[in-house]
Design brief:
seven-stranded mixed sheet, 11 strands, Aspartate Aminotransferase, domain 2, alpha/beta, disordered N terminus, 12 helices, 2 domains, two-stranded parallel sheet
Length: 381
């Protein structure tokens, strides 16, 4: 893999940083202030920069709804599921029959694997990407073709077409991709769909959709749908909405494909509390805009800190960033764990990169303090 050249990378940043600007090592973010402890933080517990969670937590409206739901926790969901489906369908201009809720988008991915994979079928995906689908596919007895990303960290769609030749099954595309945070251009994806055998369904995982800011190469397959019954788009409430702990996601597909997905659904996987909190978060569009803007600022601050240390990073469109550590990822992960900070797991074949989830300014200041404690890299003899 070719890592991004530091000088050319920072030239490409949309917001730009003046060349040679002096940057303090622990510069305070523009969002800094009297920050409360991150929601879910246990005093004395580790700082969690490992799972791409929203460290700022749910919106105030969602939190109020969660508190109000305590008294209904003895009930199975009735109209709550339908109300959430109707809201999603209305915003995306689709029929309610095209929307399937799940216990996080992970369940929607499991539904797709259950519906379209098994012995004699093929899963085609990138490497590295979110590994969950591959694990499920292997458990179902399917073959898995993992194709390396391109030198610009996009999906290698030509290689994926070759991997899909002569078989049937499922193509998984995480866009923006986890763990690299990078995009595959929409035009390339449309060309890929035109060439892909009709025997494949395609999952477009848009878990990090809301964090993409003004990138002309990206358009969601929900914002501009394609007339292709093979396409399944998945989204999650775990990221921008800050609801990873109560688990809800959704898939949008053609009516027939949605029916096939729903046949794999676990009954009552979406609880009363989940559906009501999800609807409150969904309707709080101001909080979503604020969260996206705050993430863009936090991301830019990370770039500034990396530049101050002469570190190479992969330009991200998400709430996490991969950084070239110049040493085995396992050693860096262990160092942070010893200092009460958790960062992302290793992602082969990118064995000398680590993935860092963005968090509040105090948490990121602690991350950089611990980074600066890393032993000096050993030079070859």
């Amino acid at each position: 893999m070719m890592r991004t050249n530091r000088r050319s990378f920072f030239r490409q940043l949309a917001t730009g940083v003046a060349a040679g600007a002096a940057l303090p090592v622990l510069r305070e973010s523009a969002w800094a202030g009297a920050w409360p402890a991150p929601r879910g933080y246990v005093p004395g517990g580790p700082i969690r920069l490992d799972s791409n969670e929203n460290a700022y937590g749910p919106s105030a409206q969602a939190m109020d709804t969660i508190r109000a739901c305590v008294d209904c926790s003895n009930r199975y969901p009735k109209g709550e599921y339908e109300a959430m489906v109707a809201a999603i369908a209305a915003r995306h201009a689709v029929k309610p029959e095209q929307v399937v809720l799940g216990c996080g988008s992970s369940e929607n991915l499991r539904m797709a694997v259950g519906a379209y994979l098994g012995p004699g079928k093929m899963l085609v995906q990138a490497a590295p990407t979110f590994e969950f689908v591959a694990h499920l596919a292997q458990a179902q007895g399917a073959q898995v073709a993992e194709l390396p990303l391109t030198r610009s960290y996009a999906h290698d769609l030509d290689a994926m077409l070759d991997g899909a030749a002569g078989c049937c099954g499922l193509v998984y595309i995480c866009n923006p991709n986890n763990p690299t945070g990078t995009l595959t251009p929409r035009a390339d994806l449309e060309a890929f769909l035109r060439k892909l055998p009709s025997t494949y369904k395609v999952v477009m995982d848009e878990a990090y959709h809301h964090f993409v800011v003004d990138n002309p190469a990206y358009t969601s397959f929900l914002d501009r749908p394609v007339d292709d019954d093979r396409v399944i788009v998945t989204r999650t409430f775990s990221k921008i909405y800050g609801l990873a702990g109560i688990r809800m996601g959704y898939a949008v597909a053609s009516i027939e494909t949605a029916r096939q997905l729903a046949a794999q659904r676990m009954q009552f996987a979406v609880s009363v509390l989940t559906a009501r909190a999800g609807l409150a978060a969904w309707n709080d569009t101001d909080a979503v805009r604020t969260g996206a803007a705050r993430n863009a600022n936090d991301r830019q601050e990370f770039y500034r800190q990396a530049k101050a240390r002469d570190l190479a990073v992969i330009a991200s469109e998400t709430n996490f960033i991969m950084i070239h550590s110049g040493r085995p990822a396992e050693a860096v992960i262990a160092h942070f764990k010893q200092n009460n900070v958790l960062i992302g797991r290793p992602f082969p074949p990118m064995t000398d990169y680590v993935r860092i989830s963005l968090a509040t300014p105090p948490e990121m200041q602690e991350f950089w303090r611990v980074w600066d404690l890393l032993p000096a890299k050993q030079l070859p003899a």
